[in-house]
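A.,

Following up on our hallway conversation. Structure tokens first:
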């Protein structure tokens, strides 16, 4: 059958005026599409054939001093705590730039483009303005040592570090603080204690400071009962003089910024008697070179400050110079080396040292700068009425390099740490650096930061003739934990190793810590313990389930590390597929969901105990036992049975899937039986279907009557039509009697046909 066209559409298409309009629209659409796709973006920032880089400088105003901010220019991101950030090596061209958001401030402009043309450096000014309802809180300290002092404040449960450049005391500025009450605390630094050490700051509107700046002063000083001891020198060369004092067996160095004589201040000294000694410097010798200072209460100095003056001068009478001359050292700046001779410790960046000594025999030791070795490294010299000279040769050690870890993802100023082959370094900047690392492979661990997970959390890095940098990405998300393996039974200097979830760590006896481990599945993470000569590890392998900070103790016993291992196999039955179960055997715990076996590797031993872990809703038989292992061993199956109530009789026997199958089968049989009875009743009603039934089973044409006739003729199950002998001539047949078949006289001529009624007339029921 062909579709009938819509007459409205046909009328529109038949109008000759609209066809050109439609064609014009189509052509204009294709023309617009073509023109839109033929536009070529102009090339921006093309490099010349020979690259020449220039500086692009961004200058900010409006931020509190020391506030960190950052700029991204042509894909390069730089950050700093100063008002100026310079992006170097930018080629000629036009480049996009943007300023990162600073909490509580808006930047104007916050992005744009900069055009670099030739050697003239480009400069862009950024104005930061506080956002409405955002204020600053500034902590200012006094009392700490002057130069680049680092300290920190915990404000609203977040640690903020100082910038270290405070000429009236370093400051810590916290921006973007909204109205509220905030707790803070400050930790001691350099043996000095803060006042106040904690408190609260209430931020309420734009006062009391200028533009809503709230300030808290922190004074550092000794705690009650603690005093300071100060050594002040005279006679040494003025500029950046370095000298030191050994006080109470600890060496303290001068800060090198003494106008009127450098000073060495030792804080937090309690009452007592303390010995001190001062080393010679620059061929000049101290007076006194040693002595004792008695600290007793808050006197004699102001506030309990004890002072000792040290005068440096030439060789005293009755003593002779001992010259120590070095050769071989080189570098810029010159490296520092030192000598301990006759109890005096001197250091220098020059080529010689002088010790004044009386007649006698004196032992000496040499201190070499990093990367160098001294020959001889120690010895003795005898002074007898005249000067002596010692010749020292320095040779450079094998080359070493810097290993750097660079993080991304952490909030600016967040402290993080790296452990490289047992050495820990921490930083509040994106970089943690290790210097002087020789060629080789080194294990590292990235410490967790609260609510931040490092990737990778641990691993190894190889140094081979060049510096190495490893990128560490922190992501905020589900908590991760530290997994600690602790050794026992081996000497403290013994090396051992563990491979945990595919990552290997090694170190001396003690703890091996795997950081950044997420919660495990019920089967846990696999681990194996490396062989230690002369010892046997227990357990030597296993699985460790992590659901928080986890630990595993590895016990070492003396014995042959080549002693063979045997497998001990535990099998279960009765648990549903995928149900987790566990075994504690020989001090180690293993669990499994699939397959239904748990296998341990153990050395031959007698009386090894095991126990079956609890499985909710089930009991095990046996639940524990003892094994003698002399080879590969398979334990009889552990049978789990449901610990819930059991039904008796048929309902108990037909539980679970079997009962469901029987119920379904009964339902199908019942449905078939009902269908059969319905068909029998219809056939019993007359041996043939009624007119309405005939119509329902037939087609829409007159073929319905022929279908009924053929169906009645071929139905071998239909009973014969009743005769007058079979049916009593009663006008109202009793229940169970069949009425005589209707004749043509009983049915009106208009309704006698078995053909279905036409669609225009309603069908009539046959009574």
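Then the amino acids I'd put at each of the 767 positions:
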């Amino acid at each position: 059958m062909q579709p009938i066209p819509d007459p409205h559409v046909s009328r529109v298409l038949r109008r000759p005026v609209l066809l050109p309009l439609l064609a014009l629209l189509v052509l204009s659409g294709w023309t617009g599409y073509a023109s839109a796709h033929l536009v070529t973006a102009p090339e921006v920032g093309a490099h010349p054939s020979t690259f020449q880089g220039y500086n692009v400088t961004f200058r900010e105003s409006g931020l509190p001093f020391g506030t960190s901010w950052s700029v991204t220019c042509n894909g390069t991101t730089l950050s700093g705590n100063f008002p100026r950030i310079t992006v170097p090596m930018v080629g000629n061209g036009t480049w996009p730039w943007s300023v990162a958001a600073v909490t509580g401030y808006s930047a104007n402009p916050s992005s744009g483009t900069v055009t670099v043309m030739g050697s003239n450096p480009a400069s862009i000014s950024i104005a930061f303005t506080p956002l409405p309802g955002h204020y600053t809180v500034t902590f200012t300290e006094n009392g700490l040592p002057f130069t680049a002092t680092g300290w920190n404040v915990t404000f609203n449960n977040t640690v903020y570090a100082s910038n270290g450049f405070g000429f009236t005391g370093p400051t810590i500025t916290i921006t973007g603080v909204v109205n509220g009450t905030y707790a803070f605390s400050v930790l001691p630094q350099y043996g000095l204690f803060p006042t106040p050490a904690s408190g609260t700051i209430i931020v309420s509107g734009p006062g009391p400071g200028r533009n809503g700046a709230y300030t808290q002063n922190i004074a550092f000083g000794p705690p009650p009962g603690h005093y300071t001891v100060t050594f002040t020198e005279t006679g040494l060369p003025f500029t950046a003089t370095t000298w030191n004092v050994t006080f109470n067996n600890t060496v303290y160095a001068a800060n090198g910024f003494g106008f009127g004589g450098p000073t060495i201040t030792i804080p937090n000294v309690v009452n007592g008697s303390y010995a001190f000694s001062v080393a010679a410097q620059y061929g000049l010798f101290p007076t006194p070179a040693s002595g004792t200072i008695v600290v007793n209460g808050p006197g004699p100095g102001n506030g309990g400050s004890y002072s000792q003056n040290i005068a440096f001068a030439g060789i005293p009478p009755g003593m002779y110079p001992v010259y120590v001359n070095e050769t071989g050292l080189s570098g810029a700046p010159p490296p520092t080396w030192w000598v301990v001779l006759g109890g005096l410790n001197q250091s220098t960046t020059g080529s010689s040292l002088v010790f004044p000594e009386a007649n006698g025999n004196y032992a000496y030791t040499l201190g070499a700068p990093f990367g160098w070795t001294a020959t001889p490294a120690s010895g003795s010299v005898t002074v007898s009425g005249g000067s002596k000279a010692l010749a020292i040769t320095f040779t450079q050690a094998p080359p070493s390099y810097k290993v750097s870890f660079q993080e991304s993802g952490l909030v600016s100023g967040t402290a993080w740490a790296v452990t490289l082959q047992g050495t820990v370094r921490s930083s509040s900047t994106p970089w943690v650096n290790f210097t002087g690392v020789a060629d080789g492979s080194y294990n590292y661990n990235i410490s967790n930061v609260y609510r931040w997970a490092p990737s990778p959390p641990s691993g190894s890095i190889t140094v081979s003739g060049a510096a190495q940098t490893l990128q560490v990405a922190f992501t905020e998300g589900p908590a991760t934990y530290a997994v600690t393996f602790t050794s026992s039974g081996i000497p403290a200097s013994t090396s051992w190793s563990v491979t945990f979830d595919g990552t290997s760590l090694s170190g001396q006896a003690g703890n091996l810590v795997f950081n950044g481990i997420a919660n495990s599945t019920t089967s846990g993470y696999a681990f194996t313990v490396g062989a230690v000569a002369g010892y046997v590890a227990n357990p030597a392998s296993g699985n460790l389930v992590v659901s928080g900070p986890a630990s595993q103790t590895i016990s070492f016993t003396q014995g042959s590390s080549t002693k063979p291992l045997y497998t001990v196999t535990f099998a279960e039955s009765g648990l549903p597929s995928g149900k987790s179960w566990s075994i504690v055997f020989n001090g180690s715990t293993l669990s499994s969901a699939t397959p239904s076996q748990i296998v341990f590797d153990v050395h031959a031993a007698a009386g090894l105990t095991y126990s079956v872990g609890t499985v909710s809703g089930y009991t095990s038989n046996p639940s524990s036992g003892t094994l003698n292992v002399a080879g590969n061993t398979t334990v009889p199956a552990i049978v789990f049975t449901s610990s819930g109530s059991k039904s008796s009789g048929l309902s108990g026997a037909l539980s679970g899937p079997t009962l469901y199958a029987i119920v379904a089968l009964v339902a199908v049989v019942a449905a078939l039986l009902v269908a059969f009875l319905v068909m029998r009743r219809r056939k019993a009603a007359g041996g043939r279907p009624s007119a309405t039934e005939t119509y329902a089973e037939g087609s829409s044409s007159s073929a319905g009557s022929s279908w009924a006739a053929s169906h009645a003729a071929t139905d071998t199950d239909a009973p014969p039509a009743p005769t007058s002998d079979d049916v009593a001539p009663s006008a109202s047949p009793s229940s169970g009697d069949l009425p005589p078949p209707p004749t043509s006289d009983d049915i009106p001529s208009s309704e006698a046909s078995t053909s279905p009624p036409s669609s225009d007339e309603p069908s009539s029921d046959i009574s």
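The CA atoms of residues 338 and 347 lie 4 Å apart. Curious whether your intuition agrees with the design.

B.
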